[in-house]
Specification:
The protein has seven helices and eleven strands. With about 230 residues, the chain is α/β, with parallel strands linked by helices. It has a six-stranded mixed β-sheet with strand order 3-2-1-4-5-11. The protein has a five-stranded mixed β-sheet with strand order 8-7-6-9-10. A hairpin with a 2-residue loop joins strand 2 and strand 3. The longest helix has 18 residues. The chain starts with a strand and ends in a 22-residue tail after the last strand.
């Protein structure tokens, strides 16, 4: 895989991206803010990415997909498109765990702070992990209450993927001695994938999406027949 042209796809976060890599070299990357419109934007952005790099889809030797865990609809679409591309091109597909990807976005000087990872989990839920915390999925206000209770008045560093509303709520309630590492100060998805060792990718016949929680599907009552 290290010498192949790889197309990497990430729809497991609020900021989505596609990247094209030639071995360990990042050729091009496209990043956009998710508006729950992956079905319209993902294929278009892949096409634009290939064109910008001067490549065709038939040049791609392998697919890498961030398979989750993540929000239901976005992850499902990203993994489905990745599987279709890999199958139609008869090329291998590799899955990448979203938490592994995020933890490897940290730069060396940021790792020493042992930051807490916050990842949007769909609906009103956020998953948190790190810094001796038990991994849990909670609304952001409960995340804040939990952390304040466990690390009262301690300086803490956070990073991760929050919606605009979650980020606003976090900023309004966080302690003065807390720091949040914004995404612009982390390695990009493409840079991270390019630097990861082969052991972080799982080769699969069909990539399987992983969700933080099942979709909230409304159950309608059965119709009454006359």
């Amino acid at each position: 895989m290290s010498k192949s042209l790889r197309l990497a796809i990430n729809t497991s976060a609020t900021v989505e991206s596609v990247a094209l890599l030639d071995g360990k070299k990042l050729l091009a990357e496209t990043v956009w803010k998710s508006k729950m419109d992956e079905t319209e934007r993902l294929l278009k952005n892949i096409e634009k990415l290939l064109k910008r790099a001067g490549k065709r889809v038939n040049d791609v030797d392998a697919i890498i997909v961030a398979c989750g865990p993540g929000p239901f609809s976005a992850v499902r679409i990203g993994v489905t498109v990745s599987n279709i591309l890999a199958n139609s091109l008869s090329i291998p597909i590799y899955s990448l765990n979203t938490q592994v990807f995020w933890k490897n976005r940290l730069k060396s000087e940021q790792i020493a702070a042992r930051p807490i990872l916050l990842l949007h989990a769909g609906g009103h839920f956020v998953n948190l992990s790190g810094h001796e915390l038990k991994e849990e999925m909670l609304p952001i206000k409960d995340v804040l209450a939990l952390v304040k209770g466990k690390f009262a008045k301690k300086s803490l560093v956070f990073f991760g993927d929050l919606t605009e509303n979650e980020a606003r709520e976090f900023d309004e309630a966080k302690e003065k001695n807390w720091e949040f590492i914004h995404e612009k100060n982390l390695k990009t998805f493409g840079e991270t994938v390019a630097a990861l060792p082969a052991s972080k990718f799982k080769k699969q016949k069909i990539a399987i999406p992983v969700y933080w929680k099942p979709a909230n599907i409304t159950k309608f009552p059965k119709a009454k027949h006359a």
